[in-house]
Design a protein that fits this description.
The chain has 160 residues and is α+β, with helices and mostly antiparallel strands. The chain contains four helices and four strands, in the order ααβαββαβ. The chain is elongated.
Length: 160
């Protein structure tokens, strides 16, 4: 493990109290861990904002499925971007509204363009895109794959 550098920060009592509440809610064991998590998150977001490299995006949006032809338009849109769409999850919220979560891959510009176009469709009430990428060198923990198991998908047999 690399050595850690110790730094000091000054916070007002109100800000420190709010930070401690955030730390407890987040599950961080101590203030140092919480600060590292916040710094990492900000660095990943900054990197994602300017990255030209491969990214992952999570686009979530709520829409009114009674809006004329919107279901078809959303489906067509995802098919037009089939190289970027990895997975989609669809949830029925109530009689009128659905939530979709779409996992994407591509450059930040590609993913923002896709998100902007989809969120602009009539009947999409609101949504947001979260971008992320693996950031070696930002202090992420390393683990051997012996520590946990990644199940492999089972092959389906073909009908005879």
């Amino acid at each position: 493990m690399k050595t850690l550098s110790r730094v000091g920060i000054s916070l007002s009592p109100d800000l420190l109290e709010a930070f401690d509440r955030l730390r407890i809610r987040s599950g961080a064991r101590n203030r140092s861990e919480a600060v590292r998590d916040i710094v990492r998150d900000r660095l990943v977001r900054e990197s994602a904002a300017s990255s030209r490299g491969p990214m992952f995006g999570v686009l979530s949006y709520v829409y009114d499925h009674h809006t004329g032809e919107l279901d078809r338009r959303l489906n067509d849109f995802q098919h037009r971007h089939v190289r970027r769409v990895i997975s989609t999850t669809h949830v029925h919220i109530d009689h009128f509204h659905c939530l979709e979560v779409v996992i994407l891959n591509g450059t930040a510009l590609q993913l923002r363009t896709i998100a902007d176009q989809l969120l602009a469709l009539k009947g999409v009430n609101h949504g947001d895109l979260f971008l992320t990428q693996a950031q070696p060198g930002l202090g992420h923990h390393h683990h051997d794959h012996d520590d946990h198991h990644h199940p492999r998908p089972r092959r389906r047999s073909r009908p005879r």
